Recover the amino acids of this structure.
């Protein structure tokens, strides 16, 4: 399909939002990003060539919490339903790094995308693979077809130095006996997974298994149809944190955001989308990426509703 006209219109709309908001300053290594940058990619379900984009769609950025979709998929692929005893599937309605909510819920995180839930998923992936962050990186390389996908160890080190709240969440989980590995091991792999550097093009390509109902780029099955549906469902209710309602209202697609400014979205059966702009709204979601996805679904009429 030729997306050119749609992409140009999406870019024109999103550029007026690019720069509105603030770049993530709590991770010093991310604070240097140009707040006015903007990129958008759409990947069709055909071969590796079926991807197009606009703006800075091949500029690298830190995927941050977008990584949580992929770690969840890898754990579900190995464990099936077992994970849901340790992590919920409800909207959080709270900031992504809330300690109060985790304490109230006795160490069972609301969903796999709040930080506490992602730490539990990474803990499990570490058990399954012996090297959670490398397993994720290798998967992303394979699905995107880009062997350059890698960690940014400077960003990971910066997060470790400044990540008192994540350390507190991990210790609270351990206090409730919810982690199998040591806190420092889980945090090490969590920060590395968040530091992975990709672009709109490679992220959209890597996520196509979610639009293909679980089938990987090489045609093998990662997730059952039902598991793929579940990942998409949790993205819809929790992928953009306490803004998930507003996001569903405006965009109407399963999506996952990260404080690097990326938002990945899935049109099941049709395509994947990745939008990027470093300036964030107060919920930690990119203003330009949200505006772009809003424009795309409005122009095409594609949503899950
Ligand atoms: O745990 C953190 O603070 C970051 N590494 C990831 C947070 C993030 O991307 C939340 N998303 N919007």
């Amino acid at each position: 399909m030729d997306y050119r006209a749609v992409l140009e219109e999406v870019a024109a709309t999103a550029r007026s939002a690019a720069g509105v908001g603030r770049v993530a300053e709590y991770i010093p290594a991310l604070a240097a990003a140009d707040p006015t940058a903007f990129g958008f990619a759409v990947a069709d379900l055909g071969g590796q060539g079926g991807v197009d984009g606009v703006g800075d769609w091949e500029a690298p950025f830190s995927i941050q919490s977008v990584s949580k979709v992929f770690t969840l998929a890898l754990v579900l692929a190995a464990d099936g339903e077992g994970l849901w005893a340790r992590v919920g599937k409800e909207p959080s309605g709270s900031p992504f790094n809330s300690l109060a909510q985790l304490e109230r819920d006795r160490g069972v995180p609301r969903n796999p995308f709040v930080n506490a839930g992602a730490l539990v998923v990474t803990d499990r992936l570490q058990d399954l693979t012996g090297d959670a962050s490398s397993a994720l990186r290798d998967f992303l390389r394979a699905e995107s077809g880009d062997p350059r996908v890698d960690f940014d160890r400077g960003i990971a080190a910066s997060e470790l130095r400044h990540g008192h709240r994540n350390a507190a969440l991990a210790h609270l989980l351990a206090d409730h006996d919810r982690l199998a590995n040591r806190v420092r091991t889980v945090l090490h792999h969590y920060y590395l997974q968040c530091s992975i550097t990709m672009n709109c093009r490679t992220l959209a390509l890597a996520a196509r298994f979610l639009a293909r109902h679980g089938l990987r780029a090489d045609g093998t099955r990662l997730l059952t149809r039902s598991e793929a549906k579940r990942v998409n469902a949790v993205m819809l209710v929790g992928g953009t944190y306490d803004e998930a309602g507003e996001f569903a209202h405006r965009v109407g697609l399963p999506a996952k955001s990260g404080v690097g400014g990326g938002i990945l979205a899935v049109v099941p059966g049709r395509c994947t989308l990745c939008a990027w702009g470093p300036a964030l709204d107060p919920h930690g979601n990119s203003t330009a990426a949200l505006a772009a996805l809003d424009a795309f679904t409005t122009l095409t009429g594609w949503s899950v509703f």
The pocket of 6-diazenyl-5-OXO-L-norleucine is lined by residues 64-65, 96-97, 115, 159, 166, 194, 257-259, 284 (CB under 6 Å). The beta strands are 39-44, 51-55, 61-62, 197-198, 255-257, 262-267, 271-276.
